[in-house]
Amino acid sequence: MEYRHTPVLLAEVTQQLSLQPGAIFVDCTLGGAGHAKRISHLVAPTGIVVGIDQDDAALIAAADTLRLGQQSSPTTVLVKGNFGNLDECLLEARVPYVNGFLFDLGVSSPQLDVAGRGFTYQEDAPLDMRMDPSTSQPTAADIVTTYPETELARIIREYGEERWASRIAAFIVAARGHHRIVTTGELVEIVKAAIPAAARRTGGHPARRTFQALRIEVNHELEVLERGLESAIRWLAPGGRIVVISYHSLEDRIVRDVFSAAGKGCVCPPDLPVCRCGHEPVLRIITKKPVVPTDEEVEANPRARSARLRVAEKL
């Protein structure tokens, strides 16, 4: 299947990164390289583009999109890995510093569209949800089969922001008492049964929040995000920028908080007459409020609807 992916907020990302020829750019969520292709033209011919992704299909598609080895292209290095291990990925890429980072979070369109990956609630498929299916990490099926009811409820409530989390967890535990839940279709039917009929008629697909919660748990997305952002701040050269596109409030809150913490100066108690902490800000927040897609972009690409873009610059 062809790896198709429409990059979200492409013009805004390009503008905010503000990269020049010779710069080093790192796309931490390479996908089909839609963003990286545009940015490679900005840093060419002497710059470096590093693309990181844990999905083999994405790396294969990106190599074709970027057409590695073309005479006018920048040096391009593709690394299979998770941006939670950003230090190791950048050491493998052999770059001394970075002028611009992009994190485009969440699940890419091709991962959603390939039913066999188990991310979508629209088709029946194995209940997997691993970003890198070659790993031995637990799948979504393992989680719904083995987690205690209280832990399932917590995950669905916190990561999915689902008001019916306790009922859904109870229905999952009751169902797995009869048989192992192994497909997306089975889980969708359980969630539908757990949510009262009146509540199912609003707010989109009833399983959307539960599937989001399980995907976050399977891939440890929130812990990985915080760790990756903190590493990126360390690798940034002065004047370099981090651009992050998030798609739900949990991600956006982490981005906001990490940027805010790195942008603070003195953290001494306010009643101290002089600063004793010596804390210096390392970032300047460029976007006081997140940038959102235009109505025209959302109409052309509905998956951009929930996107929120934040930018910070290294001091």
Question: What report would you give on this structure?
Answer:
The chain has helices at 10-17, 34-43, 56-66, 86-93, 109-113, 140-146, 149-160, 165-176, 184-194, 197-200, 208-219, 221-235, 249-262, 295-300; strands at residues 24-27, 48-53, 75-80, 98-104, 236-246, 283-285, 308-314. It is α/β, with parallel strands linked by helices. Strand 2, helix 3 and strand 3 (75-80) form a beta-alpha-beta unit. It folds into two domains: 10-104 and 221-314, Rossmann fold (3-Layer(aba) Sandwich), CATH 3.40.50; 116-219, DNA polymerase, domain 1, CATH 1.10.150. 43% of the residues lie in helices and 14% in strands. The protein has a seven-stranded mixed sheet with strand order 3-2-1-4-5-7-6, with helices on both faces.
Describe the secondary-structure layout.
Elements: H1 10-17, E1 24-27, H2 34-43, E2 48-53, H3 56-66, E3 75-80, H4 86-93, E4 98-104, H5 109-113, H6 140-146, H7 149-160, H8 165-176, H9 184-194, H10 197-200, H11 208-219, H12 221-235, E5 236-246, H13 249-262, E6 283-285, H14 295-300, E7 308-314
Parallel strand pairs: 1-2, 1-4, 2-3, 4-5
Antiparallel strand pairs: 5-7, 6-7
Helix pairs in contact: 7-8, 7-11, 8-9, 12-13
